[in-house]
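LAB NOTEBOOK - FOLDING QUEUE
OPERATOR: T.R.
BATCH SIZE: 2
PURPOSE: Compare the predicted structure-token outputs for two unrelated chains run back to back under identical settings.
PRIORITY: normal
REVIEWER: second-year student, initials M.K.

ITEM 1
FIELD SEQUENCE / FIELD STRUCTURE:
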Amino acid sequence: GGGGTNIVDGGGDMYDNGNIIQVYSGSWSAPLPYTRQCGGGMTGAGVGDVRYFTCKAAAGVWVAGFHSPSASIGGFEVTGNLGADGHGTASGRTHVGGGVGLRAWGHSKAVSGSSKPSVNHLVVVRSAGWTNSWSSHTDSDAHTVRAGSGSPVAELLYVLWAGAGGRFYTAQDFEAVLAIAVSASFTTTTTTTTTTTTPTTTTTTATTAPAVLLSTCRTRSDPRLERRFQFLFRARPAPHGTRCLFGVTPKDEGSHCVMDDGRYGSFGWCYTQADRSEWGSCSESCPLEGSAEVLARRVELLTERVQAALKRLNMTKCLPIGAK
């Protein structure tokens, strides 16, 4: 998982040259090289405006993330061969997770039950109607997720992990990882939770982070969009040049303008008052969710939270996925 376009073995004969990934945007990309961009940044996928990163995390977690400003991602595919060589079983299903405004669908595939490490995929999108197909042969890593009757998306996330001794993970296990992946990759909470444990009690205290003004990010005037936003959300338009206030809505992740597919401005929109009474279309100087700094925080937070989820699910015996 450290370089190249495939995992040769992965440890314990998990693979026989597998985890070859491709993305669809008008056409399929070539097999994508592993970028090892755990610290931020993205690389062009060679199709449409799709950019991506891969990150080999500790504790057997490997992640790939894709972003398309035009929301043109219509599919994702994994191919290659596995070390199970016909032993064990292949299974898959579609899971639904997230919450209000953050609904997401996780399409899973698992090869488990052999003496080799189990191979577990979860492909996450924020659109219903996508199809999930996989090979029933346990020597094949084939797994394809397509838009089908659903809509192409701006973001797609792929999480891979291994299970020692062919371990089988339940639907509930996959859904727990889905919940963590959604919260880490599609929104970032502005609430810090501190837990203090005594011999008899556990106390949880939540502290909400303050909203942040970014002096370089200011609104621009767009009367047509302002009327639309005011009608839909009952918020007044901010004067031209008003500073954006981040951390007001989970969608801005405390650091960038909200794109919403460009419906409220080519560079997204932001609130300018903490009570959500005023908003504005963002100008060219504002950060978007695809910026290197934002992506770096996402990747770091995602890997931390997925690893935490695996630990809570007693997946601490996951094998490290090899570098080749």
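ITEM 2
FIELD SEQUENCE / FIELD STRUCTURE:
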Amino acid sequence: MEDVIDQIYTVCHCNEVTYKEIMDAIKAGACDLESLMDRTDAGTACGLCKSVEDDPGGERAIHLDELIEKAKLKGLCPEDKA
């Protein structure tokens, strides 16, 4: 069972994209930044949630590129299951 925090934690504040939506998109094959942004709209407004480099003030706790890397390490990307 997924944690409730995963379902409600907002990764992209501008477009109100949750952690769960990000992880669902990654599991469905959006395993690079461009495809993840296309599929979810996360990171397409101010861009702070894309990466640490795009967030110099450290306003976001986690970034899209970090979630992609975490998913790849856990084998969650379909390409990793081949």
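REVIEWER COMMENT (ITEM 2): The chain has a mean pLDDT of 92.
FOLLOW-UP: none requested
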